[in-house]
């Protein structure tokens, strides 16, 4: 525990500059959206308190907005507003709206009717009634709404990092991707502290004497604006090109860290979720992204992979890994699985992924068409002699590989196949294999090395990113440690890659990462 | 001064006020009396435009109130509510100063007026900066009255002003209210369901039922010249007390014995009510009272003489 704490402090200290930037962005996002929500929500709340037959529609609409899951809301906003601060602010604004409108409405309608009647009977006009009676008396309730909205916003703002708007979510989601607890806590603790701090400050404001409140309510908008401006403090060091990297890529040695260390690449970087990254590049909101070299979207969005001329991205060659007992039990299995070797290179795999991910063809059909084209399709035999249990992770390429293997086994052997596809991540698949729940699944050499074996850094360095050395090492270690065999690699490499729009890369004559660095240096 | 002409108001299908007409003269103290739901509060609120009548007109000083801005109208009509309706976020002084403030009086004038009203309503000046929730119910109601009087409105509307107070406080405030010099020259319309209160404070009483006037007249008229059996039945329960409170000693004059020569009498004006006389007897534990009329003629009466006089007096009315 103590060690954990020390390393957490160590992490936060080391990353202090990033942490500061993220915190400022986080506060900025929270309060820009809050400010807009107050500016719009307060008058709207007053309006529906005056015309109560409107309240059903307005509160209903805002209430429905509130029920949209935050990620989905961001998803809806990206096509309209793109990525970055804009959709994040709009989403946060929409979430802040309900508590503010509802509390303004409740606050005003909840005022003792006798007081209101007295005010009217004394001859206050509508404006005087609002400013001298309704707002001051509703203020504690309105402030409670603003307080709720603030806390919600601090929480939801962590998701802003999905769409390149920054904030403490960069650490949180980076940490989750990298399974780095210190990184998660480095983002989560400041976020929680921010929520607690603002909640506390607003609760103090609520308890202030109603009389002094008048002055503080005037100070509030000023404070809101100042806090909002914090977002713009971490002025990004501008380069001509903008890179969008996933939170995982940002924190990895074989990711952004390596790009900076080995290539000396300096580029204005935003953190973004993998799901929207490719599209953002296509729509010219990003110029360089960190993708996977066989991703179907490469083809869909007309992107090219920059050559990793200094070899910082370790090889991720795909190969089936099989329990040794299974190889003994099913003698013709290895031979059958090896039928695929050499048939699929990077661009073929990209094309297959493209069909599944973008043309929405079923993995079975894509596998069937592929095998037919390569003369590997056979009707399944009649007699069945045991069942092979096949696993796969939960993304398109793995489904395709599982379908290919499944159809090959059915065609070329007398075994039956049960496919347990969609087994989540690496850990789930590997555990299933170890616990004799599946017999095989397709794995990548890089994953085997870095996610499963996790050897010391020296060992990794000694492999030098060489594909054959890496394969030999993982094959050897898996055999020794787990009794699991790596069969021959299929031939494609689904590694990290930097990619750009084809047209832009050609215009600037950028083919390799070194080219990119030179180009940026000359700007 | 205030003229209500054929005014009606319905809520959904329910007629709260049904073609009601009445007239309130200057400096009159009219009580709208009736059971709850009889339309008395609705009638009151139509006078200061808190409720708009469906039909009919209301004139104040000959001017139709529909032709005036309701804001200006209300600033010239004091309004006292049952649950005081004080602004909880305003201090006592701020509450009293609301209308003068709206009328843009200068600061000094407002301060003087607040001081004056606090004194008249028996509120210590140190209460200026207190907030309504720090005051007792009776004190809150006094502030409510002060607030209504602040800008010298010629008309005062009161909606069950003492209804929420306990008996002791109510009697006390009613007495203070009666003695308040500022009210002597005001036209007052007060709503109440309390018959005793109506007879104590009103010089005209308007008994209402189902949104219409049953009888309007002096307390004496309602008691002894009822226009409808409803009036008699409404007053039935407390009739004796009401009669005693209404009948003046002057009315009993012919049946009271002439003054004897003994001293040590308590002296009472013939303008006092029979109730006052009985109370005096009770309080001072004496057998007889000396009653003096405006011509300085004196009579002496004890309990028995008073009772006999009222018996005979009532006989003359019934015939």
UniProtKB/TrEMBL annotation, chain B:
Residues 2-235 form the ABC transporter domain. GO terms for molecular function: ATP binding; ATP hydrolysis activity. Its EC number is 3.6.3.30. It comes from the Bacteria. GO terms for biological process: quaternary ammonium group transport. The keyword ATP-binding applies. The keyword Transport applies. Keywords: ATP-binding, Hydrolase, Nucleotide-binding, Transport. PANTHER family: OSMOPROTECTANT IMPORT ATP-BINDING PROTEIN OSMV. Belongs to the ABC transporter superfamily. This is Fe(3+)-transporting ATPase.
């Amino acid at each position: 525990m103590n060690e954990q704490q020390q390393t957490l402090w160590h992490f936060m200290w080391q990353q202090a500059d990033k942490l500061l930037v993220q915190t400022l962005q986080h506060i900025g996002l929270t309060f820009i959206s809050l400010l807009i929500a107050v500016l719009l929500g307060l008058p709207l709340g007053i309006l529906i308190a005056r015309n109560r037959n409107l309240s059903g529609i307005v509160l209903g609409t805002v209430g429905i907005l509130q029920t949209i899951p935050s990620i989905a809301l961001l998803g809806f906003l990206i096509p309209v507003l793109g990525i970055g601060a804009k959709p994040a602010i709009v989403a946060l604004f929409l979430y802040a709206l309900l508590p503010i409108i509802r509390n303004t409405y409740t606050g005003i309608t909840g005022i003792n009717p006798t007081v209101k009647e007295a005010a009217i009977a004394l001859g206050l006009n509508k404006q005087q009634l609002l400013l001298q009676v309704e707002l001051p008396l509703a203020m504690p309730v309105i402030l409670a709404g603003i307080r709720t909205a603030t806390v919600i916003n601090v929480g939801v703002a962590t998701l802003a990092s999905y769409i390149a708007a920054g904030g403490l979510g960069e650490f949180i989601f980076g940490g989750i991707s990298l399974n780095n607890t210190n990184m998660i806590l480095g983002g989560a603790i400041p976020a929680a502290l921010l929520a607690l701090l603002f909640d506390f400050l607003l609760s103090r404001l609520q308890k202030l004497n109603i009389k002094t409140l008048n002055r503080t309510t005037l100070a509030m908008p000023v404070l809101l604006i100042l806090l909002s401006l914090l977002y713009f403090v971490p002025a990004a060091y501008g380069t001509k090109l903008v890179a969008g990297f996933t939170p995982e890529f940002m924190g990895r040695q074989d990711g952004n860290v390596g790009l900076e260390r080995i290539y000396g690449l300096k580029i204005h970087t935003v953190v973004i979720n993998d799901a929207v990254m490719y599209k953002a590049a296509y729509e010219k909101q990003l110029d360089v992204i960190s993708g996977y070299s066989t991703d179907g979207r490469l083809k869909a969005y007309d992107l090219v992979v920059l050559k990793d001329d200094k070899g910082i991205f370790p090889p991720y060659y795909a190969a089936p890994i099989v329990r040794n007992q299974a190889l003994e039990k099913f003698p013709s299995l290895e031979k059958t699985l090896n039928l695929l070797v050499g048939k699929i290179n990077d661009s073929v795999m990209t094309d297959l992924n493209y069909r599944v991910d973008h043309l929405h063809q079923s993995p079975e059909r894509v596998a069937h068409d592929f095998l037919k084209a390569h003369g590997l399709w056979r009707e399944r035999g009649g007699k069945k002699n045991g069942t092979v249990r096949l696993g796969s992770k939960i993304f398109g390429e793995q489904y395709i590989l599982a379908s290919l293997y499944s159809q090959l086994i059915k065609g070329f052997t007398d075994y039956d196949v049960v496919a347990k596809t969609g087994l989540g991540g690496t850990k789930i698949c590997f555990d299933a294999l170890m616990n004799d729940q599946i017999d095989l699944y397709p794995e990548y050499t890089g994953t085997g090395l870095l996610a499963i074996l996790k050897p010391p850094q020296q060992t990794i360095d000694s492999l030098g990113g060489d594909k054959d050395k890496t394969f030999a090492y993982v094959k050897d270690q898996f055999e020794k440690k787990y009794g699991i065999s790596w069969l021959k690699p299929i031939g494609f490499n689904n590694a990290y890659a930097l990619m750009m729009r084809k047209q832009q890369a050609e215009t600037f004559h950028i083919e390799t990462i070194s080219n990119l660095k030179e180009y940026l240096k000359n700007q | 001064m205030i003229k209500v002409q054929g005014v009606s108001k319905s809520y959904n299908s329910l007629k709260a006020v049904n073609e009601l007409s009445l007239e309130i003269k200057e400096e009159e103290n009219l009580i709208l009396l009736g059971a709850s739901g009889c339309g008395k509060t609705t009638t009151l609120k139509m006078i200061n435009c808190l409720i708009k009548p469906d039909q009919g007109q209301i004139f104040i000083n000959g001017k139709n109130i529909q032709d005036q801005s309701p804001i200006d109208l209300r600033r010239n009509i004091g309004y006292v509510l049952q649950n005081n309706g004080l602004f909880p976020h305003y201090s006592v002084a701020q509450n009293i100063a609301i209308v003068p403030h709206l009328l843009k009086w200068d600061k000094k004038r407002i301060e003087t007026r607040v001081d004056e009203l606090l004194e008249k309503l028996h509120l210590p000046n140190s209460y200026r900066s207190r907030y309504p929730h720090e005051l007792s119910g009776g004190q809150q109601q006094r502030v409510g009255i002060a607030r209504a009087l602040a800008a010298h409105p010629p008309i005062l509307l009161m909606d069950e002003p003492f209804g929420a107070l306990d008996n002791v406080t109510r009697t006390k405030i009613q007495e203070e209210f009666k003695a308040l010099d500022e009210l002597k020259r005001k036209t007052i319309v007060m709503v109440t369901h309390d018959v005793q209160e109506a007879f104590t404070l009103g010089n005209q009483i308007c008994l209402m039922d189902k949104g219409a006037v049953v009888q309007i007249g002096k307390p004496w008229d309602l008691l002894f010249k009822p226009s409808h059996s409803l009036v008699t039945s409404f007053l039935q329960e407390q009739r004796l007390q009401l009669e005693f409170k209404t009948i003046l000693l002057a009315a009993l004059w012919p049946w009271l014995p002439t003054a004897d020569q003994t001293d040590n009498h308590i002296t009472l004006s013939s303008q006092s009510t029979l109730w006052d006389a009985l109370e005096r007897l009770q309080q001072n534990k004496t057998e007889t009272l000396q009653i003096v009329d405006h011509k300085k003629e004196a009579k002496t009466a004890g309990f028995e003489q008073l009772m006999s006089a009222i018996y005979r007096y009532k006989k003359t009315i019934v015939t």
